[in-house]
Amino acid sequence: MAADAAEEIRGTAQGNAPVPLSVLDLVTVGAGRTATEALRTGVDIARLAENRGFHRYWVAEHHSMPGVASSSPAVILAHLAAHTERIRLGSGGVMLPNHAPLVIAEQFGTLEAMAPGRVDLGLGRAPGTDGATAAALRRTDRLNEGADDFPQQLAELIRFLDDDFPDGHPYGRIHAVPGPVQATSPGGVQSTHRPPVWLLGSSGFSARLAGTLGLPFAFAHHFSAQNTVPALDLYRDSFRPSAVLDTPYALIGVSALATDDEKEARRQVLAAALNMVRLRTGRPGLVPTPEEAEAYDFSPMEEEFVRSWNANVVHGTADEVRSGLDDLQKRTGADELMITANAHGGDVRLRSYELIADAYGLPAA
Q1: How far is 189 from 173, CA to CA, in rounded Å?
Q2: Quick one: which of 131, 133, 165, 193 has the fewest CB in 10 Å?
Q3: Are 118 and 88 in contact (CB under 8 A)?
Q4: pLDDT higher than 70, residue 129
Q5: Residue 342 region, left (φ>0) first, then alpha (ψ -120 to 50), else beta?
Q6: Cα–Cα distance measured from residue 326 to residue 258, given in angstroms and rounded to the nearest whole number
Q7: 23 near 70, Cβ under 8 Å?
Q8: Cβ 318 vs Cβ 207: under 8 Å
Q9: What is the reported pTM?
């Protein structure tokens, strides 16, 4: 890694935000909308985020979910690299057990060549889908093996990224291209830089591993809120200084939606919660409209799920969302807040990021 790796990882708070603010985009597809529209909205959000001082924009790998069009993070990031100039772009994350490490090293080496110095490689060990889809992706039914082998897969990937397999290793003569080998080849003028690696998690496993390896850590507070503080404590307690970081750095993903009217915020998050009800009960679909959610007959068990789910969604007017984000940052000590806005319409999501930027006095374009 380059000596400035920590500078790429650690953002700078803008305006009067307590920590750097970033964006996590699931490229959600609403009922009556297309994946093309969702991807166009992603470009609009990335551009707004860049112009308003958000630190990074990540996309997450999901599969077999009609309402989520982010099955191919590297492809989306290449598209975004062509439409942005400064903002960091990355995966939040690539689900490493679904892929051969060499493939990911090649994909993100290519992204690094496209957008030098602004690509992040966030890695998770979950499949990002159901078991049957994971088996189809991996061409194996032994799914536990992928998760159990995650530390070894991670080590192999980093070796490919750094092009530093030891002498005698079976992969010693294999090189991820684009990558550092090009700089050491005769006449080579390529950069030896490679994307910083982040570990993602929703429990303690990746928290401990990230700390032990001295890597930055991203926690999925937006769907595992009860584990946030224990996981961050474990990460900090386990942390060992490395060539990448001398002190811990942890961001949390948080679901937040700001609207011009508090009632509208409640309508939008109800629709997003109905989408989660369907996903959790094996009925994934497009994100429903607020009107569909208001007309839906929730069972008592579903109502309880919605209450529990929305308790961890920061929503309301811009001032209410700012207050909620401030409280969450103080409670967790997160070094960065990565905001995901889940709503049916792309215009609502775009407006939410704009309102949050205004509430924190982030710089205008």
Answers
A1: 20
A2: 131
A3: yes
A4: no
A5: beta
A6: 14
A7: no
A8: no
A9: 0.94
